[in-house]
Inverse folding.
């Protein structure tokens, strides 16, 4: 479904868009409850659970797509290229964020075969699900490792609660990561 949004108000600021947004009516994944109707930047409030997909440019995640959930999911998710593997600390660095591995963490490859941390390499893609601690480290329950893909090296997908919103600058923060949304951002 395509819809032309003429304007909306965020924190008292009217933004005139004149941009067509592509909206998919179904949730991106089974079990995910999304807000009814057409989500927009007006739905981007502190404490809202969202999924953002985009590319990192100059340290800022440029949101290509944002999905707004009606309720928070149990786990937060990071899905991006692995930047560092620390066998001693039993951590990965994904999208600039630390992902901690414990004996309970299930690490699997793209075919769902079990892996050990020693099998994981920089450049591979990792989808880590877990809960963040007070320092912002993701305590991973599950990690799916996919082959390295140079075309996806800067692609990031994050599911987390919005921590800050600056409507005037069209930015938000989730998972301690600055995200830029624009009139071209697709909302689901």
């Amino acid at each position: 479904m395509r819809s032309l949004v003429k304007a909306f108000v965020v924190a008292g600021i009217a933004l005139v868009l004149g941009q067509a947004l592509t909206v998919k009516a179904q949730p991106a994944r089974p079990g995910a409850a999304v807000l009814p109707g057409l989500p927009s930047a007006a739905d981007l409030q502190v404490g809202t659970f969202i999924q953002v997909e985009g590319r990192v440019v100059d340290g800022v995640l440029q949101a290509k797509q944002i999905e707004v959930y009606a309720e928070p999911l149990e786990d937060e998710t990071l899905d991006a290229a692995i930047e560092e593997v620390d066998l001693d600390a039993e951590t990965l660095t994904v999208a600039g964020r630390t992902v901690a591995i414990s004996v309970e963490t299930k690490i699997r490859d793209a075919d769902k075969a079990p892996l050990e941390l020693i099998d994981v390499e920089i450049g591979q893609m990792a989808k880590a699900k877990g809960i963040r601690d007070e320092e912002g480290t993701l305590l991973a329950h599950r990690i799916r490792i996919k082959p390295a893909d140079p075309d996806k090296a800067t692609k990031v997908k994050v599911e987390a609660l919005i921590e800050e919103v600056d409507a005037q600058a069209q930015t938000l923060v989730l998972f301690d990561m600055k995200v830029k949304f624009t009139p071209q951002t697709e909302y689901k």
Remarks:
- DSSP finds no helices and 14 strands in the chain.
- The mean pLDDT is 83.
- The first strand starts at residue 2 and ends at 10.
- The radius of gyration is 17 Å.
